[in-house]
Design brief:
0% helix, Lipocalin, 239 residues, 58% strand, mainly beta, signal, Transporter
Length: 239
């Protein structure tokens, strides 16, 4: 794969993550892409994500449901359970989103796909604060076996001591052979609270088609400026 790739000239968003919540992102990456689920089709991810920093481990498991409601419109719901070091299993943060593609790569003079993907993160877990809102735009360029996607967005993060913040990132994927893709991403998230540091990191990811509607996806990453590790695995069903 290519090394770290800056794609900030193409608008998009990475979904920011926290130690107590799953990444709101495009599996298997933190960075998402602008491709909505096909009309009247489902993409279902049964996922597990693990994050670790400063001796605290957070685990999220659940379902990520995506439905092509109409042409170029995807509806998304993420339904997780969460557990972290020293705490019992709890309901995670439920996420509701809608992805709408506003530009197509083959049309006009702009050779990329572009989508809006606003998302609401609901404070459904124990001790949760207030709802957050992610306001993103996504961009992607396909070229042969390569896919380039990424960009940036803004998160409204209300609550005492919290800060609104920007998130941004870029990803590159390549089809190595039919049914097998490899990729790399760089992501950045601004401080989410007063006194907190920003996060910059790298992730390596893969997608392997097994048979029929079934695929396996996964990623592993490391913070570059903080001792933070991320792991993600999912069974994907295209229905």
């Amino acid at each position: 794969m290519l090394p770290s790739f800056h794609f900030r000239s193409v608008l998009g968003v990475i979904a920011a993550f926290g130690l107590s919540s799953p990444a709101y992102a495009g599996p298997p990456f933190v960075t998402d892409d602008p491709q909505p689920t096909e009309y009247h089709r489902w993409e279902v991810y049964q996922f597990a994500s693990l994050s670790r920093e400063d001796g605290v481990t957070g685990l999220d498991t659940g379902l990520d449901l995506n439905y092509g409601a109409i042409k170029d419109l995807q509806l998304t719901a993420t339904l997780p359970l969460h557990r972290e070091t020293g705490a019992p299993l709890d309901v995670g943060e439920v996420q509701l989103a809608a992805k709408y593609r506003i530009l197509h790569q083959g049309g006009g003079h702009l050779p990329i796909d572009v989508s809006l993907f606003p998302r609401v993160i609901l404070p459904t877990g124990r001790g949760a604060g207030r709802a957050r809102v992610l306001l993103p735009v996504w961009g992607q360029r396909n070229q042969g076996r390569w896919q380039f996607f990424g960009g940036g967005g803004y998160v409204l993060n209300p609550g005492e001591g919290n800060r609104n913040y920007w998130v941004q990132g870029a990803a590159v994927m390549r089809q190595m052979r039919p049914g097998w893709q490899l990729g790399i991403e760089e992501y950045h998230q601004g401080p989410t609270a007063q006194g907190e540091r920003a996060v910059t990191g790298l992730n390596l990811g893969t997608l392997i088609h097994i048979k029929g509607p079934v695929s396996l996806i996964g990623s592993a990453g490391q913070g570059l400026n903080r001792r933070q590790s991320l792991f993600y695995a999912a069974l994907k069903l295209d229905l």
